[in-house]
Amino acid sequence: MKKTSKYISAGHPPDSIVFIGDKKMDKPEMVLYKLGNGFQSENIESVSMLKKEIDTGNIHWLHCNGVSDVDMLKELGNLYKIHPLILADIANTEHSPKIEFLGEQIFLEIRAISYNEQSSEIDSEQVSFILGGNYLLSFLEKDNNCFKSIIERYSSNVSKSTPSPGFIIYSLFDSIVDSYYQILEKIGEDIEEVEDVILAKPTPAELERIHIIKRNLIFMRKAIWPLREIIRRLEVEGADLLDTASGLYIRDLYEHIIQIIDTVETQRELIAEILDVYLSSVSYKLNEIMRVLTVISTIFMPLTFISSIYGMNFKFMPELDWRLSYPIVMITMFVLGLGMLYLFRKKGWFYELRIKN
Amino acid sequence: MKKTSKYISAGHPPDSIVFIGDKKMDKPEMVLYKLGNGFQSENIESVSMLKKEIDTGNIHWLHCNGVSDVDMLKELGNLYKIHPLILADIANTEHSPKIEFLGEQIFLEIRAISYNEQSSEIDSEQVSFILGGNYLLSFLEKDNNCFKSIIERYSSNVSKSTPSPGFIIYSLFDSIVDSYYQILEKIGEDIEEVEDVILAKPTPAELERIHIIKRNLIFMRKAIWPLREIIRRLEVEGADLLDTASGLYIRDLYEHIIQIIDTVETQRELIAEILDVYLSSVSYKLNEIMRVLTVISTIFMPLTFISSIYGMNFKFMPELDWRLSYPIVMITMFVLGLGMLYLFRKKGWFYELRIKN
Amino acid sequence: MKKTSKYISAGHPPDSIVFIGDKKMDKPEMVLYKLGNGFQSENIESVSMLKKEIDTGNIHWLHCNGVSDVDMLKELGNLYKIHPLILADIANTEHSPKIEFLGEQIFLEIRAISYNEQSSEIDSEQVSFILGGNYLLSFLEKDNNCFKSIIERYSSNVSKSTPSPGFIIYSLFDSIVDSYYQILEKIGEDIEEVEDVILAKPTPAELERIHIIKRNLIFMRKAIWPLREIIRRLEVEGADLLDTASGLYIRDLYEHIIQIIDTVETQRELIAEILDVYLSSVSYKLNEIMRVLTVISTIFMPLTFISSIYGMNFKFMPELDWRLSYPIVMITMFVLGLGMLYLFRKKGWFYELRIKN
Amino acid sequence: MKKTSKYISAGHPPDSIVFIGDKKMDKPEMVLYKLGNGFQSENIESVSMLKKEIDTGNIHWLHCNGVSDVDMLKELGNLYKIHPLILADIANTEHSPKIEFLGEQIFLEIRAISYNEQSSEIDSEQVSFILGGNYLLSFLEKDNNCFKSIIERYSSNVSKSTPSPGFIIYSLFDSIVDSYYQILEKIGEDIEEVEDVILAKPTPAELERIHIIKRNLIFMRKAIWPLREIIRRLEVEGADLLDTASGLYIRDLYEHIIQIIDTVETQRELIAEILDVYLSSVSYKLNEIMRVLTVISTIFMPLTFISSIYGMNFKFMPELDWRLSYPIVMITMFVLGLGMLYLFRKKGWFYELRIKN
Amino acid sequence: MKKTSKYISAGHPPDSIVFIGDKKMDKPEMVLYKLGNGFQSENIESVSMLKKEIDTGNIHWLHCNGVSDVDMLKELGNLYKIHPLILADIANTEHSPKIEFLGEQIFLEIRAISYNEQSSEIDSEQVSFILGGNYLLSFLEKDNNCFKSIIERYSSNVSKSTPSPGFIIYSLFDSIVDSYYQILEKIGEDIEEVEDVILAKPTPAELERIHIIKRNLIFMRKAIWPLREIIRRLEVEGADLLDTASGLYIRDLYEHIIQIIDTVETQRELIAEILDVYLSSVSYKLNEIMRVLTVISTIFMPLTFISSIYGMNFKFMPELDWRLSYPIVMITMFVLGLGMLYLFRKKGWFYELRIKN
User: Fold this and answer.
1) Which alpha helices (H) appear in D57-99, and where do they start and end?
2) Which H or E run includes B312?
3) Is the pLDDT of residue E357 over 70?
4) B-contacting residues of C 133-192, CB under 8 Å?
């Protein structure tokens, strides 16, 4: 999961900008959305193309797919006067969610999460926003569904008034938070499937699924936990900037996060509880297996011993010549076998074996 | 348990109203209770019928069974000026409990819990309230006993003065909280039954019951935990609106919640403790079983080996021709067997087997 | 343990007074102690007898054994102007400890705990106090040693000045808290006994004792935990009313509670730790048992196989006719057996078996 | 560990002074150190001898070894005007650490801990201080090394100015805290020894050592945890009285306590982790043992069965008379045995057995 | 890990300076860096050489490798007026991280951590800073890579303005924090390797690796946890002194620490989870092994018993003489064996064995 190197960072000055993470796109793509007037989009090939847009003073949203091109980040940093430490955070794609209020700018970094159906694992991707007076910059590691749907909605919906940069952040944030629900639902389904199988017939395949679910929940938690504090600070310090009519929208987001955190914790408890059930039922089955073995051994070992006695070849074994020896020995062994069975039944072993089967 | 789809929500604008949950009723039913004057009830077929009631300015309580009809919710929202985010919360029946103070309105959402006797599982249902100046709106997923008994009490009790909308909320809240006690009592009985069986004779059926109890407690906790904060806020910000003579009623509710939370936690500890006992006793029984097997094997394997030696068909085995060989071998084997038993008894294995049985 | 029904409560109006709990006395007994002048006691048959005492305005203490008579509670409530919710709390004997400051009255509810020597379980009993201007009401579920000894002390001790109602509460509270120490000491002794046995020779009986100790500690904690907050509030809001010369007495009580809570937590850790030791030693013993079985099987199975080969009845088995076959086979088997033993000893299995015994 | 009786305390008035604990000294010894003028010591036989010293108004330190003589405590209490509750705390040697600011007096109670090399267990002893205007009283359960070395230092060191009572408390407190380090170091060594043995060859003796270490850490924690709060209060409320030039000394003490608490917690985590390793390795070894048994049984049971078939004495068994039967059966059995081995090797069982040995 | 003695410290006066730790260097080395003017370095042989540098009043940085020479520390203490308690902290190399604001001086102590590739264990080293008006003192236990690279950067980079002492501390602190990432990455790789192996084929070697990883994480946590509070205090009280243009740098450091703490916690959860998987899979494998043994025993024990019956040598066993006895017995045994197999297959044992293999 972490194949990139933070080694490079160590030893460098603190504000050196180094890309950290998996390079998911060859070349970053930039799209400029002009917000002042409708919702016009324009592909940006080089940072220099942006200069004139900024000079117009129009409200715009610059969206970048891919953050591995450090030079481009530096150019953007010069253009928009972004602090080098912020650029370093954007380039470090393994950063935890954070928010920073920097005079004229708000810097926001969260993680979008997606569920990989094949491996049942979750991938996470860093999403960074810089909100200035009349511009919004957004950075993705690679293309993302949440963004696509929001952009489509705005593009197609000409009738509505153009959204402000603050409201775009809010919408994207809300959309990413909504996507967490989907993943929790997937994980919830996984948990229920595992639960059903484990109570019926536990196999080690289930064990591996439990392992993956637990790991997913650990990563979910790491991504979501800091959002509570971020949204609280947004509410206190940045509600105006997000341009939501009232605090209700932010509080709604806050509640969703709380609810997601609750669900993650509940799922963690459930899966831990299911593992307990798994272990208990494996323990119980071991007892059942050993009971079968012990019953069989306890019955047949003494019997085999008796018959082996009369298989000895001593010349002087008077019983061998008696007429009734054979039936007597057979009956003795039969009674002995039945007696053992009776003892085990009295001990309750047999009963349990029967109801279990 | 969660078969509905939050997928629909993701991608939609944040304040779009989408029903989330199990559709428990085909068509919502609305009943209007006129509070100004006695306690008259009237079935409402369509939202438009309410218009004139509102215009009269009389105090009334509108109760809806079923929230799956999103259009109806929107109409009500227009009529009572309810914020779309609040309507979205009402329609999302898997929302955690919350309270929201919205200028003229208080929005309260809690969960009613019922115990399914057949499956021993608990079901939960969302209950939403909107309290305005002279109206109370309440929304249920489906019909509910707590509501029925409260309504019956008010309907039959003409002598008493008509309750205020605030007091109705308080009464319903109190009644729902009282119903939690019943469920905790049921779970408490389950725990005691499981405890008794597990100390006597643990079976895997007990394991499944423990699993269900633990899951129920996890869900209980999720529903109840947020109530503490909600009631605290009600006490601080909304006591007047609930129209209770003094803060004593709210504090009483608060204490009940604290007590319920304590009981849930105690029951969680108890059931965890019982699972520990189960596992320990299964471990112990395994040792006991293996001791039986080992005693039997250790006694009969060497004996069978000895008798198999004299079952060999070599021509030149002088012992076979001796007169006393047979009795000597028999006595040797007898002494060997007794010696083994003595060793095991000295090791304490036998003693434990005896007292255990 | 909980055989009474909170069902009755659900559905009733919040301030209906319903007895909840085990009925420990048929008929409540009331005793009036006149505090203004010596320490005179008087048995009270009916609430009406109290009327004239109240009218005199003398300071008095009314003590009730038994709270199952709801009518009597209501009469007392009318006489002393007690809020119905408080009466409901008194009648609900499964309430958690609480304190309530109600203008002229302080309502205090704690739990007295006693240790049942036969079952090694702990019983708890609710103790309620209402302290008014010149009266003290106390309610017990049934007679209690702490109360007896306090009353005896006051009765016999004429020389000392009569105690104030506040100081009586303090003395009773202190006496109940002191009784917690006794129970912790009992539990501490139980833990030490279990600890000694478990390190020597673990049996399932110990497991049941551990179970009972853990359950007792869970119940202790539930009864004691809320006292910390109650005493803190007493110190802040009610120190004057308790009529203790300085805050030192209350702080002393507070420290005792802290110390008791610490001891309960320490005992919980100890007993959890002892269960770990039990499980580990059961695991170890299983290994030891299986080693015995495996050593025996590994030595005798191959030997028995060899001897069974020469027990076959084929006509053409040249070895059977050789003179030296028998001694060669015997020596081979002897060497094989010794070789096995040597291998196990080298593996360290034997050594451990020896030192263990 | 707790053989004394708190029963006596229950029932007594709250401020009755009762000795609780193990009586470690027959008769308390008192030594008076005059601080005003050098560091002169004087043995005190009876409390009355102190009267004239107090009347002189000179600064002095009275040190008592042994607190079991309640009458002496009461006399001291009268002489120095000590509150009965404080005397009760001094006589109760199982009290948790505490600090009390009482107008003119500071009362401080901590626990000195020593390590018993024979039993590897820790003993703890109560140390109480009362600091008044010009006097310091200290109480030990029995003689203690920390005190001895401090007294020797002051006695021998005439050149230095005489220490103030406050600085003596600080020095003794610091010396006791330093002694905690020694014990943690001992426990740390125990942990490392256990760790080394457990990874090599776990035996139940290790299990008992782990048990003792865990119990020691539980007791350490109970003694040390409250010191954090005590020192914090000393810094805030009592720094002047301790007569340390700056707050640096108190903060140094505070940091040491924090570091000791950290180390205790780290050691608890380490020892819990080591127990996990123990259990896992015991589990693994069980698997290994069972594999040996299963391989042996699976190979020899079918072979023995085959040979037992040809050991049957039926008259009409044509194979018995064939010339090649014997070699064919032998080769068949040999091939079967090899086949089994091959299967187990393919399953990986053999490989693991080999590398393990 | 802790072979040095804190015994020496106990009994000494609190501010006595005693070296505690492993002596990693024979003789401390001191280097003086003159910051006023370029970045000139000078080796310092004795403390007296520093006197004239201080008298010049120039800004300088004195760096010491090695703190075992207590006399040198005392001389430095006299020269720079360092409090004896601070010198004691510097000499005690097992001190937890701390920060102290002392009028003119800031004292900062953190731990540098390095990863030992051979043993997979982590070593930690104490780093102390004293920042005065125009000087910076730094103390290392032995040479350290973080320091080397920072010094090289400043030495080679003449163009840039000379760094202030405060900025040097910040750079070194930042560099040490960056090095934590590297170690976490190493541990993360270890965890992934262990995870992969454990799901495929668990061996006890993995168990030991898990043990080392867990211990490393425990030590990491102990070193890193206090940094959060230290940096928070630096931000509040010492931001100016560190001479960073804005609070952004300190906040960046703070966030890195938070992220490192998060990662440590996540890794602790992951490794605990992996151990659970290990134990569960060992449990499962035991069941599988025991199933093989039980199937084999249950099939062959009864069969061997039957054949042993007809190996008895009784004279009067009519079956022995019948023509069809042998084929009948053989067929019976064959059918019995198949029946057993069928039963086990019905029980599901066989199926699991097959898919597992």
Assistant:
1) 70-80, 84-91
2) none
3) no
4) none
* Cross-chain residue pair D273–E7, CB shorter than 8 Å: no
Which residues of chain C are within 8 Å of residue B255 when distances are taken between CB atoms?
96, 98
Looking at CA atoms only, how far is residue E307 from chain A in angstroms? 9
CATH superfamily of E283-356: Magnesium transport protein CorA, transmembrane region (1.20.58.340)
CB contacts < 8 A (D, E): 155
The two structure tokens encoding residue B210: 């423990």
Q: Which CATH class is domain A29-280?
A: alpha beta
Tell which residue, A111, A110, A44, has the closest CA to residue A79. Answer: A44
| Helix ranges (DSSP H) in B201-247 | 204-237, 239-242
Contact at CB, E313 and A308, closer than 8 angstroms: no
C196 interfacial to chain D (CB closer than 8 Å): no
Where are the domains positioned within chain B? 29-280, 281-356
b/e for B136-167, b at 16 or more Cβ within 10 A? bbbbbbbebebbebbbebbeeeeeeebbbbbb
Query: How open is the CA angle B133-B136-B137, to the nearest 5 degrees?
Result: 130
CB-CB under 8 Å, B270 with C275: no
Chain B (59-98) residues lying within 8 Å, Cβ to Cβ, of chain C: none
| Spatial CA neighbour of E146 closest among A92, A15, A9, A18 | A9
Structure tokens at E357: 């293999």
Rounded distance between C-alpha atoms, residue C266 and residue B137, angstroms: 51
Contact B248 C215 (CB under 8 A): no
Closest-CA residue of chain D to E279: D280
Both structure tokens of D89:
């705390």
% residues pLDDT > 90 (chain A):
12
The separation between CA C322 and the C-alpha centre of its own chain, rounded to angstroms, equals: 78
Give the whole-angstrom CA distance, residue A316 versus residue A306: 17
Q: What's the pTM?
A: 0.81
Does the domain at residues B281-356 carry the CATH identifier 1.50.10.20?
no
Q: Does D201 touch chain C (CB under 8 A)?
A: yes
Q: Which of C12, C98, C325 lies at the smallest CB-CB distance from B314?
A: C325
Which residues of chain A does E302 touch, with a Cβ-Cβ cutoff of 8 Å?
A: 296, 300
What does B60-115 look like in DSSP terms, one character per residue? Answer: EEEEEE----HHHHHHHHHHHT--HHHHHHHHBTTPPPEEEEETTEEEEEEEEEEE
Q: What is the per-residue pLDDT across C212-246, written as a single tens digit (0 to 9) for each?
A: 999 999 988 888 988 988 888 888 777 666 655 55
How many angstroms separate the CA atoms of A317 and B326, rounded?
A: 6
Residue whose tokens read 């043994």: E293
* Helix E248-309 vs helix E165-200: crossing angle, to nearest 10: 20
The ipTM of this complex is: 0.75
Domain D282-356, architecture per CATH: Up-down Bundle (1.20)
The angle formed by the CA atoms of residues B184, B190 and B193, to the nearest 5 degrees, is 145
The mean pLDDT value for B133-141 works out to 88
For the stretch B60-110, pLDDT in tens is 899 998 888 888 888 899 888 898 888 988 988 888 888 888 878 889 999
- The residue behind tokens 């103790």 is C127
Residues of C within 8 A of B170 (CB-CB) are: 14
Count of beta carbons in the 10 Å neighbourhood of residue E297: 22
Distance separating alpha carbons of residues A51 and A76, to the nearest angstrom: 10
| Whether D287 and E290 lie within 8 Å, measured CB to CB | no
H-assigned helices in C57-164? 70-80, 84-91, 145-156
Q: Which CATH number fits domain C287-356: 3.40.50.1820, 1.10.1660.10, 1.20.58.340, 1.10.287.110?
A: 1.20.58.340
Phi, psi of A23 (to 5 degrees): -75, 105
Is A312 in the B-facing interface, judged by CB distances under 8 Å? yes
